[in-house]
Amino acid sequence: MIQHEAKIFLSAQRPKTELSWFRSFHSFNYADLYKQPIGSLKVLNDNTLSAGKGLKTQIKKSTEVLIIPLVGGVEFKNSTGYHDFLETGKVQIFLAQAGTEYEVFNPYETELINYLEVLIEKEQVIETSTTSAIIDTEKCNELLLVFYSPQQDALVSFGKYWGREEGVYQRHFGKSSMYFFVIEGAFEIDNKLMEARDGLAIFDAEEIEFEALSNNAMFLIFEIPA
User: Fold this and answer.
1) Cα 123 from Cα 125, distance rounded (Å)
2) For labelling alongside 165, which of 9, 21, 77, 182 has CA 20 to 30 A away?
3) Within the chain, what is the greatest distance between any pair of CA atoms?
4) Torsion of the alpha carbons at 91, 92, 98 and 104, rounded to the nearest 10
């Protein structure tokens, strides 16, 4: 059995920021040397926003921003004038220059929303752009491409699997690391039990085997420069 260098980020150990109208669990902890970001994947926040509330963020460095709704829909807008409504299955991709801003807003009158906020740092952004991707959340037992940036060797995939279904993730770039984030259910990834909102970083591996341990188990896989 091949043992890959790995680091586990348990959901229960995530630091959080909490206000009366907003809560964010942070996959990475800059205050803990063992829980530092993985390569260019600098932020992976699990955010919950109250009805009628919005959150603005200013980008400090050139960054690829991904907003991934999990519960409810979100309104997204940025300082370029772009505006869109994102339902579950639609991903906002904002290629942001330093100094630009974006806002996520909860348009509902009474309901909370839950979404992932992902920041992948880039060396330089020449021009700000905003696009979107659609994830077919009804498709099961295969990996779906969410985001691909050949300029920085970064790739994000989504998978939804039935219990006992197995799969293999093969590395696309020669010097990249992988970060698995379980959204729902449970998986065995590289012989490690991973449950909802757990993360697993794996370094210097050409391929990783995984098995879903529950029905409707969902995860994201980030492949980023090492």
Assistant:
1) 7
2) 9
3) 53
4) -110
> What is the domain extent for residue 54?
5-225
What pLDDT was estimated at residue 226? 72
pLDDT at res. 123: 82
Burial classification of residue 5, based on how many CB atoms lie within 10 Å of its CB (0-12 exposed, 13-18 middle, 19 or more buried)? exposed
Location of structure tokens 């940025």: 78
Tokens of 118: 């992902």
CATH of the domain at 111: 2.60.120.10
Q: What is the pLDDT of residue 11?
A: 98
Closest C-alpha to 199, from 18, 27, 72: 27
Query: Which stretches of the chain score pLDDT less than 70?
Result: 1, 126
What pTM was computed for the model?
0.96
What does the pLDDT read at residue 1? 65
52: left (phi over 0), alpha (psi -120 to 50) or beta: left
b/e map 142-173, b = 16+ CB within 10 Å: ebeebbebeebbbbbbbbbbeeebebebebee
88 vs 104: CA distance, rounded Å: 14
User: Measured between alpha carbons, how far is 85 from 186 in angstroms, rounded to an integer?
Assistant: 30
Q: Position of tokens 């890959």? A: 4
Domain count, the chain: 1
Q: Coil, strand, or helix at residue 30?
A: coil
Start-to-end C-alpha separation, the chain: 23
